[in-house]
Amino acid sequence: MGAALVCLGALVWMQGGRHYGMRRARLLMAGGGVVATGPPAWEQVVAELRLRCGRWGAEWWALVAGLVTALLGASLIPAVAGAAGVPVLRRARLARQARLARERRADAVIALCGALAGEVRAGRQPGEALLRAARDSGGLGDAQAAVVAAARFGGDVPGALAAAARQPGAEGLLGLAACWRVAVDQGAGLAAGLDRLDGALRAERDQRADLRAQLSGARATAVLLAALPALGLLLGTAMGADPLRVLLHTGAGLGCLTAGAVFETAGMWWAVRIVRRAEAV
């Protein structure tokens, strides 16, 4: 264990020194600025560690925990379990990132509708108002260039908005496209339609937030129940029972470990399914 920690520390030190040397060489070759001769500041070290952790993903900590447990328990089973947990945790992290991106895009669409309504009330033409609102809110996402080009050069703005609505979280742009089409074709008030659309999108967002707040207790309970086995192992170790040896090196312990892992996985799957079905209603 001590030899492994020493090797890990040496590897981190060598990696830090190599990157520091590369930064110094880049500065010398570029001929810019003053080259620092001492070690990098702690702020730079912390920022670099955060960047590497964000690049690797938090799911790799499952592998680290599995390796540490494998060293402590003198068995390969925790390492294999940690490696198997990496793709599962990565999928959960990517799903969470996609949900956050979808929510940010929905908020940006609401801001776009409000800004566009304000620009129209200020007396600007719909095309110019859309250009200003899109520049200020950024609610069009990746399709902003197509929508801006259609508004600037007299193209099919509703079609461009409908295409932009295919992005996750930007479904509200379909309502904006409908308001635009009705206002242009029939001469209806665009600002009034945008106000109603903005109110409907805000009400839907508030409803989702309220539902998520109500389900937070269920999520916390599921996480707590999932962490109880680890707490039991820690308590057993503190009492001197050596639960890792029993679970990893005896037949009864391996049977209990297998059954516990199956029940734990089934319980987590069931809890996640209940929460997702409640959110989809």
TrEMBL record:
<feature type="coiled-coil region">
    <location>
        <begin position="194"/>
        <end position="221"/>
    </location>
</feature>
<keyword id="KW-0812">Transmembrane</keyword>
<keyword id="KW-0175">Coiled coil</keyword>
<feature type="transmembrane region" description="Helical">
    <location>
        <begin position="60"/>
        <end position="89"/>
    </location>
</feature>
<keyword id="KW-1133">Transmembrane helix</keyword>
<keyword id="KW-1003">Cell membrane</keyword>
<protein>
    <submittedName>
        <fullName>Type II secretion system F family protein</fullName>
    </submittedName>
</protein>
<keyword id="KW-0472">Membrane</keyword>
<feature type="transmembrane region" description="Helical">
    <location>
        <begin position="247"/>
        <end position="272"/>
    </location>
</feature>
<dbReference type="InterPro" id="IPR018076">
    <property type="entry name" value="T2SS_GspF_dom"/>
</dbReference>
<dbReference type="Pfam" id="PF00482">
    <property type="entry name" value="T2SSF"/>
</dbReference>
<feature type="transmembrane region" description="Helical">
    <location>
        <begin position="222"/>
        <end position="241"/>
    </location>
</feature>
<feature type="domain" description="Type II secretion system protein GspF">
    <location>
        <begin position="114"/>
        <end position="234"/>
    </location>
</feature>
